[in-house]
């Protein structure tokens, strides 16, 4: 079943040929209704305001990272810095082991994301394409884990990590979060949309489960994989509480944890330096988002409409 | 010993006690209530830090451990790392210097998480509102005998600062990064308002000055900017205003918020923020907004003496204003953090004591004070060349040292009661933000304090 969705109040556009038909008197052409035009205008204005509201703090953060403390708190506020020097960024690099923290964040994010996506794909494949008893029950359990706040699992996870002697290790930071219910759920919904004939044909050709997964299912599920990957990257990159508990030495700290070392508990908060560090943490994610946002939307909505 | 799964488990997890499980449970409840949800009586020995063993140890026959762990705030400043390196060079004892997070709350959270699995650091920083929780959970040792063995001149510690860590006749920490609240004002505003170049003697005098101050400020300004309500702001400085008017949050474990004096202070706060004669506003970043000229004055920690001046050259510094009690009577709290020993073995406890001795020598205390803005915790530190040079450069550095004469140990309700700091601040928010009358708010607060006491303190006394 297919559904043709058009926006209410708007006629389906006529074919281009008809529009250009010389036999139609332009005076008798149906006049464009004012309502939809105003609606479009209103929507664009709303979108513009929303975009500005969301973008302004980020713009302010980047611009303020070039300002001195006095400039930031000066009244009236000035949007642009008086000079574009990098003093705050230099101060960040001098205050915390920035290259090491960037490397940690990149490594932990990359490894965690890769393994989470891999495990999510495997679980979802098993739930859809492998005939095992209690499949629906297993999926229900997976769904239920989405309802449990992450903070609740911190205590048992910490006990386990400590018992394995994994505190202050990369394994301690990465392993407890590898099971991704979100990824499993999204992939499962995507795989349910795939025609069975795809995998059945591969099975007849003698392909095993792994080959079917990686050569048949994964290529046609690229948008969903991209979406889960991106959401996971952002989540891992910004993760604070768990790494702050497990990583006790600067050699293991990620950027969000490292930022706390720039706080001044006794005296004035150096906002310029803090905002410079926050820019370093935030901008990479924004850039990634800008490049893959279409994939993200496509992936998150895949499997949302069922026929 | 292996568990059934074949995992090698640490001692504390082989037979997890109710206490260790509850300690970990506290982690999930937020740092404010990371207190001893369950634990041994004060100084008992089934915690990580063995208080009874420490009391019986013959230190003269004990050799210090070769390596210990030191958990400090933000893993310390550059100077702290320098001090630790000097200690290792001097003694050969290796320090595994680890981070406790970016705030006192996180520090406590990380300590409790580690202690819950039997991996607590051997030496740890503890803030003024968390050290007692380490004690009630059996994770720290009293330091008196150990410091005596190490020939540390404890009489040289500032009495008000060392006294903060006394409970049941023993000291459970030594002062390290310590501060007091100060009254900061903008001399340029004072001059424009025609006021004398000094801090107000009393809060009511400041209230009388406020119309003149506000007349020279922007329309959205106020005579006074207060830290946004929250732990360690409202309760800490609020304590000073209470004491100045012969009131208190508590006298030991007896709550005293129902007195006429306490209720007067509560309503003084209300009137400062609400009504036609309001002279205060809540500041998100008091220092920045003060420097920008929005407020005539703020209260802040000692660290502001140097750092506020960088933003506001016309900075004035004064003692916290007084009230109805004599001007020389104690009315100012101290704050900040101390160093506790939570090592489980005598060898590590001794090494920890040696680290405490090193970090708090008069010279190192002076270096620490000059570098961080905290106060010198030793009397002899004030006379060092390092400190004298700093005072000569910024004479106002002398003021918090002088103000120590009118400081006193904090009320149990704020400093010792687990979560008390947060409870006080939350209830003061109702007065400051909503303009509620003090009487019902303080009645609710008293009930909450009592409940917290019965749950988190009474079982351990």
From TrEMBL, chain A:
Listed A to Z, the keywords are:
Cell membrane, Membrane, Transmembrane, Transmembrane helix, Transport
Q: Which residues lie in Low complexity bias regions? A: 1-23
Which domain of life does this protein belong to?
Bacteria
Q: How does it sit in the membrane?
A: Multi-pass membrane protein
Q: Which PROSITE patterns match?
A: ABC_TM1
State the coiled-coil residue ranges.
none
Looking up InterPro entries in the UniProt record yields: MetI-like (IPR000515), MetI-like_sf (IPR035906)
Domain annotation ABC transmembrane type-1: ranges? 102-292
Transmembrane is among the record's keywords: yes
Name recorded for this polypeptide: L-arabinose transport system permease protein AraQ
Species per Swiss-Prot/TrEMBL record: Occultella aeris
Q: Which gene encodes it?
A: araQ_15
TrEMBL record, chain B:
InterPro entries per the UniProt record, alphabetical: Bact_solute-bd_prot1, SBP, TAT_signal
Q: Which domain of life is it from?
A: Bacteria
**Signal sequence segment:** none
**Pfam families referenced in this protein's UniProt entry, alphabetically:** SBP_bac_8 (PF13416)
User: What protein name is recorded for this chain?
Assistant: sn-glycerol-3-phosphate-binding periplasmic protein UgpB
Q: Give the source species.
A: Occultella aeris
Region: Disordered, residue numbers: 41-60
């Amino acid at each position: 079943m297919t559904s043709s969705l058009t926006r209410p109040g708007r006629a389906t556009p006529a074919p281009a040929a008809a529009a250009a038909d010389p036999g139609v008197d332009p005076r008798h052409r149906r006049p464009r209704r004012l309502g939809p035009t105003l609606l479009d205008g209103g929507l664009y204005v709303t979108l513009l305001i929303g975009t500005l509201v969301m973008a302004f703090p980020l713009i302010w953060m980047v611009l303020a990272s070039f300002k001195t403390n006095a400039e930031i708190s000066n009244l009236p506020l000035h949007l642009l810095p008086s000079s574009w020097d990098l003093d705050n960024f230099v101060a960040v690099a001098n205050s915390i082991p920035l290259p090491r923290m960037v490397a940690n964040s990149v490594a932990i994010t990359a490894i965690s994301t890769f393994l989470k996506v891999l495990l999510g794909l495997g679980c979802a494949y098993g739930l859809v394409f492998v005939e095992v008893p209690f499949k629906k029950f297993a999926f229900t359990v997976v769904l239920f884990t989405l309802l449990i706040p992450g903070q609740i699992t911190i205590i048992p996870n910490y006990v386990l990590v400590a018992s394995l002697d994994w505190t202050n290790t990369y394994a301690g930071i990465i392993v407890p979060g590898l099971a991704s219910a979100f990824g499993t759920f999204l992939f499962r919904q995507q795989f349910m949309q795939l025609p069975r004939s795809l995998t059945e044909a591969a099975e007849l050709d003698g392909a095993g489960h792994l080959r079917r997964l990686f050569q048949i299912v994964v290529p046609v599920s690229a948008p969903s994989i991209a979406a889960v990957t991106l959401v996971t990257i952002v989540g891992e990159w910004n993760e604070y509480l768990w790494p702050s508990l497990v990583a006790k030495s600067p050699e293991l700290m990620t950027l969000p944890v490292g930022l706390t070392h720039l706080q001044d508990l006794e005296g004035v908060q150096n906002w310029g330096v803090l905002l410079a560090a926050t820019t370093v943490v935030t901008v990479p994610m924004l850039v990634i988002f800008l490049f893959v946002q279409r994939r993200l939307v496509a992936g998150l909505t895949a499997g949302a409409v069922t026929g | 010993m292996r568990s059934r799964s074949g995992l090698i488990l640490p001692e504390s997890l082989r037979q997890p006690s109710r206490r260790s499980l509850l300690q970990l449970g506290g982690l999930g409840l937020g740092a404010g209530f990371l207190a001893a949800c369950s634990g041994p009586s004060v100084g008992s020995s089934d915690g990580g830090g063995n208080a009874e063993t420490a009391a019986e140890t013959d230190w003269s026959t004990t050799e210090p451990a070769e390596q210990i762990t030191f958990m400090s705030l933000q893993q310390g400043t550059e100077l702290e790392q320098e001090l630790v390196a000097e200690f290792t060079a001097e003694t050969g004892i290796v320090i595994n210097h680890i981070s406790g997070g970016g705030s006192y709350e996180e520090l406590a959270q990380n300590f409790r998480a580690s202690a819950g699995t039997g991996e607590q650091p051997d030496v740890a920083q503890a803030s003024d509102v968390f050290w007692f929780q380490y004690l009630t959970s059996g994770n720290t040792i009293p330091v008196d005998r150990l410091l005596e063995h190490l020939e540390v001149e404890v009489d040289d510690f500032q009495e008000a600062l060392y006294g903060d860590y006394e409970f049941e006749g023993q000291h459970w920490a030594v002062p390290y990064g310590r501060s007091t609240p100060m009254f900061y004002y903008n001399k340029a505003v004072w001059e424009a308002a025609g006021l004398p170049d000094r801090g107000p003697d009393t809060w009511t005098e400041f209230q009388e000055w406020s119309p003149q101050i506000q007349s020279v400020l922007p329309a959205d300004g106020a005579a006074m900017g207060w830290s946004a309500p929250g732990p360690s702001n409202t309760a800490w400085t609020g304590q000073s205003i209470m004491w100045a008017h012969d009131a208190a949050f508590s006298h030991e474990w007896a709550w005293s918020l129902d007195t006429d004096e306490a209720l007067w202070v509560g309503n003084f706060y209300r009137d400062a923020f609400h009504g036609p004669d309001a002279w205060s506003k809540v500041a998100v970043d008091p220092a920045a907004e003060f420097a920008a000229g929005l407020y005539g004055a703020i209260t802040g920690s000692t660290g502001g003496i140097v750092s506020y001046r960088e933003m506001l050259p016309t900075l004035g510094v004064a003692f916290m204003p007084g009230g109805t009690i004599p001007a020389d009577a104690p009315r100012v709290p101290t704050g900040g953090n101390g160093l506790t020993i939570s090592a489980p073995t005598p060898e590590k406890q001794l090494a920890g004591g040696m680290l405490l001795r090193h970090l708090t020598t008069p010279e190192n205390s002076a270096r620490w004070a000059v570098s961080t803005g905290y106060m010198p915790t030793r009397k002899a530190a004030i006379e060092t060349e390092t400190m004298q040079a700093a005072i000569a450069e910024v004479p106002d550095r002398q003021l918090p040292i002088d103000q120590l004469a009118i400081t006193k140990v904090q009320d149990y309700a704020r400093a010792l009661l687990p979560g008390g700091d947060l409870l006080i601040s939350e209830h003061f928010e109702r007065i400051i933000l909503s303009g509620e009358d003090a009487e019902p708010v303080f009645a609710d607060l008293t009930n909450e304090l009592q409940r917290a006491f019965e749950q988190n303190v009474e079982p351990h006394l």
